[in-house]
Amino acid sequence: MKFKAMTAVAALLFAPAAFAGGADDDTLIVNGDIEMTTKAPAPAHLDGALDEIISGWHFRSDETQQLQTDDFENQGMIFVDQAMDIWDTAEGSEGKACSDCHADPADSMAGVAATYPKWNEDAGELRTVQMQVNDCRVNRMGADAWKYDATDAVSMEAMIASHSRGMPVDVAIDGPVAEAWEKGKEIYYTRYGQLELACASCHEENYGNYIRADHLSQGQINGFPTYRLKNAKLNGAHSRFKGCIRDTRAETFSPGSDEFIALELYVKSRGNGLSVEGPSVRN
Amino acid sequence: MASGVKPRVKAPKKASAGEVVTIKTLISHKMESGQRKDSSGNVIPRSIINRFTCDFNGENVIDVVLAPAISTNPYFEFDATIPEAGDLKFTWYDDDGDVYEETKSVAVG
């Protein structure tokens, strides 16, 4: 009797795995206009790890997916609007706004999000979009730098990303950034925390499966910044990394740290070939 | 005025007489419920949109009472019959007394 009850419990426990599906076969078209590449052959450096790279969009429910197909329903676009206001607002000692140098972001920022994080030759460092924005703010505008992944900073990143939507992610991983890329790769495969989980434990070996109630994706960041329904705001990639590492019960790195910049480059390179989706909608 | 409030409406510019059209509205608003406390333990005062209405040429189409449990950036989607050309007037009422308005003209033809 006891054995039977145990078997029943076990069957219930395994039930979700039976329902667990991989990515669905829907097609993502935004505003009836921008056709997204949400599945692509894996880039060469993922040989032996993944055959196909899949956007996180495929792992969400139809209702959540639909929100991203229309800018009016995509609440991430609220923050894009707010960033547009900031874009035109002069700040700092130089009395300059973003628009004074970069004019219309629809032209000047097109394609930017697809290639960042990127090596900056003058500064001799690997830069994310947010670091580049802060460099402008401090050195050209004489304004204060934004804290990493602060609301304004993520909104601006989302606005910049929105002008690259539909373009394939194409970050460079060789040359001066090779060292950072290797470091990011090492972090990706390092098990952290009391639960001893690496990024790869969930997002490479178990994507498509459920981790309790959550449907694991490949952890692609082509859709960042992402509007999450759970906290009703835009989330930066570094904050997401932090959340994941925290969930392994580890001490995490900080948003904006060298470790996360390297990890952002590495994770983004795993999505080379997928369309930029930011701001995407996820749960 | 609560900060960052911006109403948006998506309605067709043109319809045929008697056509049922879908109207979507969204207002960015923090919808602070009044149930939360800040880091020093003080209650954060309630600040929500408490009513939303839509009128067509002065005739009421929809009148909604909003409660504190409604999440941030409230979104409404509803159908309306357009009998003739005219203006859709949308009004949101804030707890702090502010009223946000938006008007969309619909042509018939």
From TrEMBL, chain B:
Transmembrane segments: none annotated. InterPro entries: Ig-like_fold (IPR013783), Ig_E-set (IPR014756), SoxZ (IPR030995), SoxZ_dom (IPR014880). It comes from the Bacteria. NCBIfam families: SoxZ_true. This is Sulfur oxidation Z protein. The lineage of its organism: Bacteria, Pseudomonadati, Pseudomonadota, Alphaproteobacteria, Rhodobacterales.
